[in-house]
Amino acid sequence: MLLENKTAVIYGGGGSIGGAMADAFAAQGARVFLAGRTPAKLDTVAERIRSAGGQVETAVVDAMDASSVNDHIDAVAEKAGSVDISVNVITGEGIFQPLAEISTEDFAASIGRALTTQLITTKAAARHMVKQESGVLLFFGGSDHANISPGMGNVQIGFDAVESLRRQWAVELAPHGVRTVTLLTGGIIDTFPDTPEMEGPRQHIVDASPFKRAATMADVGNVAAFVASEHGRSITSTQVNISFGACYG
């Protein structure tokens, strides 16, 4: 197994993307700790993992609260012996509208939330990884310099800002053996509701790819597990493009 004897912490672990990563990590032997604000969602993912024979624990954690995050990560490290993988997938809480229609207050609040939660959770995990002289910090969303999706509003800007944060972490943590990698996607097609209203956005994701395909949640999980494993040990300080060529980061 790629992640046997590894410990993975996933903030936003009850969501679709966090759940997909949790499934893949657990399937590859990792002990997964799901953190989030909604117990029912965390329990749904945890039950799925346990049914498949995986190791998983859940905790209600507010990823905007540094004390809550630090207390949780310290408990994980004490219980599991290490913090090997940390990923925060709470970066997509932006506004899918043209920028001209977004108020200044809403724009600033959304970007602020994205950067704040990433800073808090990454600082917490990095504190343990630096002591260990090892670890993998995964980020999700990535920076697509082509800006091919006009309907992304400030969501793409939030991704770009987090990617800038990731680049700085890479410089500061590399001397301590900590890897930093972003998964760049062009949109995960099975996160969109299968409704008539979403047919256009779903098709846009497919049409943007020269392969006329789009990444799925399973793709996200499988790539994340590989990157986080020793097989991906040479991948760091970069983005891994899993958009079927839709993004040109």
Topology of this protein?
Blueprint: E1 7-11, H1 16-27, E2 31-36, H2 39-51, E3 55-60, H3 66-80, E4 85-88, H4 104-132, E5 135-141, H5 153-173, E6 178-184, H6 199-207, H7 217-228, E7 238-241
Parallel strand pairs: 1-2, 1-4, 2-3, 4-5, 5-6, 6-7
Helix pairs in contact: 1-2, 1-7, 3-4, 4-5
- Flag low-confidence runs: none
Number of DSSP strand runs: 7
**Rg calc:** 17 Å
Task: Tell me what the CATH architecture is.
Answer: 3-Layer(aba) Sandwich
What is the total domain count? 1
Could you tell me the strand content as a percent range?
Answer: 15-25%
- Helix/sheet category: alpha/beta
Mean pLDDT figure:
92
Summarize this entry quickly.
This protein has 249 residues and is of the alpha/beta class. It has helices spanning 16-27, 39-51, 66-80, 104-132, 153-173, 199-207, 217-228, and strands spanning 7-11, 31-36, 55-60, 85-88, 135-141, 178-184, 238-241. Strand 1, helix 1 (16-27) and strand 2 form a beta-alpha-beta unit.
Structure description:
- The chain has 249 residues and is an alpha/beta fold.
- It contains 7 helices and 7 strands; from the N terminus they run βαβαβαβαβαβααβ.
- It has a 7-stranded parallel β-sheet with strand order 3-2-1-4-5-6-7, with helices on both faces.
- α4 (104-132) links the parallel β4 and β5 (135-141).
- The radius of gyration is 17 Å and the shape is globular.
- The chain starts with 6 loop residues before the first strand and ends in an 8-residue tail after the last strand.
- The mean pLDDT is 92.
